Amino acid sequence: MADVMVLGAGAAGLAAAAQLKARGVDCVVLERGPGVAASWRGRYDRLRLHTIRSLSGLPGFPIPRQYGRWVRRDDLVRYLEAYAERFKIDVRTGTTVAAIKPGGDRWSLRLEDGSEQSARTLVVATGYLHTPELPQWPGREDWTGKLIHSAEYRNAKPFRGQNVLVVGPGNSGAEIATDLAEGGAASVSLAIRTPPHIVRRETAGWPAQMNGLLLGRLPERVFNPMAAMMARVEMPDLRPYGIDRPSEGLKTRLRTKRYVPLQDVGIVRDVVAGRVRPVAAVQSFTETSVRLADGTSLEPDAVVAATGYGTGLRDLFDDTSLFDETGVPLVHGGEPARPGLFFMGYDVTLGGMLRQLAIESRLVARAVQRSRS
């Protein structure tokens, strides 16, 4: 039995644990994977942070300069390992929590192996990119080709010489499509349901993240047309290539759908050059083909579904009133959702995920300290 437990040894959980220790609060971190940063280890090989190194470090220990401005996946994993070691964080790996229930003045955790733990204070930091979600497309079970979620994609090597359909024009889908085009796929199609907002990762050395930080507080009526104007200046008109301009404003879409823009790290170049072909949204599957919303069909060898993630929290808690319809906690950050229960790492901003985690870790640690006094 621990006084304070943190679920998840990713960036959010490690930052929370370090800030708790800095305030004299000992805690135990439970992690289902074999080590810290398990979710980052499982992402595709070419992944880099879309936020700059200097604005992505966790409290008390910046990311080393030698990792460069745009930090690679493996370097971020090394950084998080060093972070856990630096602050002597007690991480219990291979520990999967199956259910969480209130029990008096404590929170009861049933583990996958049948054992139980309890804590007076529980900080849930498992993240909103927790459980891969694969749509239940009609006919999916009849499909005889290869179908994987983007969480399973590592690199283009297994797809060389194949016709590949990538579903979803978010950051993962667009970068995977570029990776496939560069890596020897015979053809790459990108299925688009809702046209993406596309921004350059940086312009003349100025990162898109800074635009989000400086302009993100503007009201939607000001921010939306400003973002649309900047997109027209920065980006070529992709309508002749099959990508319409978005009809909904960027900040409105962020508020209503937790959407962040697509950072261009090659997809615009590849679409214009014909290496990646935009197509309509996926409608259904047959044994050998994929039917699209515009009535056309494709016969790819493989489909990579970059169709997002769920939080997985509804499977842990009986109290569904804690969450909205998408499984995101209604109360998160520095405020307790219930006495002794905190959620962090579920806020999506234009200023960067890791920067936001650093802010929330301080708020949560301060709130936990106050609750114990």
What features would you describe in this structure?
The structure is a single chain. α1 packs parallel to α9. The model has no long low-confidence stretch (mean pLDDT 96). The strands form 6 sheets. Strands 1, 2, 3, 4, 5, 6 and 21 form a 7-stranded mixed sheet that branches. The radius of gyration is 21 Å and the shape is globular. β16 and β17 form a beta hairpin. It has 373 residues and is an alpha/beta fold. It starts with a strand and ends with a helix. It has 2 domains: 194 residues, 3-Layer(bba) Sandwich (FAD/NAD(P)-binding domain); 172 residues, FAD/NAD(P)-binding domain. The protein has 9 helices and 21 strands.
Mean pLDDT: 96
**CATH architecture term of the largest domain:** 3-Layer(bba) Sandwich
Number of helices: 9
What does the main sheet amount to? 7 strands, mixed
Radius of gyration: 21 Å
CATH topology of the largest domain: FAD/NAD(P)-binding domain
What's the CATH C level of the largest domain?
A: Alpha Beta
Alpha carbon gap, first and last residue: 20 Å
The CATH superfamily of the largest domain is identified as FAD/NAD(P)-binding domain
Domain module tally: 2
Q: Give start-end ranges of low-pLDDT stretches.
A: none
What is the succession of H and E elements?
EHEHHEEEEEEEHEEEEHHHEHEEEEEEEH
